[in-house]
Amino acid sequence: MSIEKPDQKYEPVHTNKTGGSPFTGVVGWIDNRLPIIRMFKHEYLDFQVPRSLSYFWSFGGILTICLILLILTGLSLGMHYKPDSKYAFDSVEKIMRDVNYGWLIRYAHMNLGSFFFIAVYLHIFRGLYYGSYKEPRQLMWIIGIVIFLLMMATAFLGYTLPWGQMSYWGATVITNLFSAIPLVGESVVTWLWGDYAVGDAALNRFYVLHWLIAFLIVGVVAFHVIALHIVGSNNPSGIEPKDTRDTVTFAPFTTSKDLVGMLFFLLIFVAVMMYAPNYLGHPDNYIPANPMVTPAHIVPEWYFLPFYAILRSIPDKLMGVVAMVSSIAVLGLLPWLDFSKVRSSVFRPIWKQCVFLFVLNFFVLMYIGGAPAEGIYLVIGRIGTAFWFAFFFILAPLVSIIEKPLPMPESIHEFEEWKKQGKIKSIKLFNK
Amino acid sequence: MTENNNKDKSTRRDFLTTVTATVGVVGVGAGILPVISHMNPDASVKALASIEVDISKIKEGQEMTVLWRGKPVFIKRRTNEEIQKAEQTSLKDLKDPQEDKARVKKSEWLVVVGVCTHLGCVPIGGKGDYDGWFCPCHGSHYDTSGRIRKGPAPTNLEIPKYEFVSNDKIKIG
Hints:
The complex is a heterodimer. Chain A is an all-alpha fold. Chain A has helices at residues 25-33, 36-45, 59-78, 88-97, 102-129, 138-160, 165-176, 185-193, 200-231, 250-275, 305-313, 317-329, 334-337, 349-370, 375-402, 412-420; strands at residues 48-50, 247-249. Helix content of chain A is 61%, strand content 1%. In chain B, 25% of the residues lie in helices and 24% in strands. Chain B has a 4-stranded antiparallel β-sheet, with no helix packed on it. Chain B has a 3-stranded antiparallel β-sheet with strand order 1-10-9, with no helix packed on it. In chain B, strands 2-3-4 form a 3-stranded antiparallel β-sheet, with no helix packed on it. At the A-B interface, helix 7, helix 8 and helix 12 of A face loops of B.
């Protein structure tokens, strides 16, 4: 075999001085061998973002801080926790009573879990309202849904670890969802448990998976951010930036705005953690797990309630599970079900109402998920479930066709002008 | 590069590619199987032998719960009324049709696994629309034979393997 290749000079990248690092000295030496410094400058210091971003765009940063704090507090808790059905409950109580600042670290971890969901729901609402899922951001939206699913998995696994009554029965109910799979369901559940019921084997592996998925989230978040830096941020106008009149640099403009958002969010978090640390939890989880008795009123954590309501509103086991899984998966189809060319609800009078109804329905389902599964609650739950799917499969395509969008500015800087002239009413978290 | 254009003749590289890929697939398969099996119940769990239960102290209409293989088992001494109700139910009214006779060894004693067939909660005795059990989690109603009558559960309460050792003792498992 002969190798026929043109005679080219071999040039390793690091010796290519002219196309290399813009830095000199030690920084340049490192950057020429590991180009993360120029990457950071390019993606975080010089990065251009639309100038019209509101505080609704702070939740990406807020979620990042939450994730970092969750991992740090989790690391600390992991050093004292014992994933054994005999010792788990007591080790958590030991953390609360004996370990130095254990109460603080555990309450922080517990409440950060809830606040992570508060931030992610606001983040998803932002996406829905301003059409952030539309071309070219479909894949970023789908990666976001993957993160949301992973969050749900790791939140569920984490909730089982204290091994209280709600941990135990929550674990039993959720793992039993897999028994709805035709033919192999029962074997799958036994395999997940490593036993014939939720017990020591399950707790041990749940602990390992709680860690694993936390780090998987970090990885998928990296994809989410890489995708963001390719397609760029959406903004309240839904119009793409055209020139530098439409943009500001990420630092110091976005960073300082994000910092304000983060601090405000963290203040609320600290207030809840300090004054009502168990408000978002359930008192039954301070009763040690008992496989003989199911608590009379078993409910999941608040952030699962809307989906739990959807599960319960279907009177068939398999179809209930299918409905619950689809209710989240359907979000991934939204970029194609809503094909209106206009992104932002600011210019979409009908879609705007639909999104607000969707939010209202979300809260109704949340209430129903926490109420007993009988009588009027069941009826409302079924209507809410029907609306959830109708929003995606009927309203989204229908509104795309029949809606006549409002007149739109040509560019983001014109949008800002219109806002000053009072031509546009936007939703604001704070008034200037 | 002329050899690769000759499609009729397999080369040394083709052979090596096929062999390597085959060995690779078999190897990965052989590696994955133990890892999957690793998560299934281990020998000590499977070896959990049967348990013997003294049922002499259970009065008519009373129910006892014992733990077997990590799951509760209900042992219920049914009243005549409850037995009649269970036996006279028409199979047409049942979601998972099964005669009461097929579910008991002695009609006075009902032994069922106390795990709701919906999502695994423990139903509460003496509650629900059919006087059997009611599952508080998602509202499944079972009758005095442990059969599903109303709600999301797909099948009747499971009957464990058991036998009467004597009149006062049963062996579950």
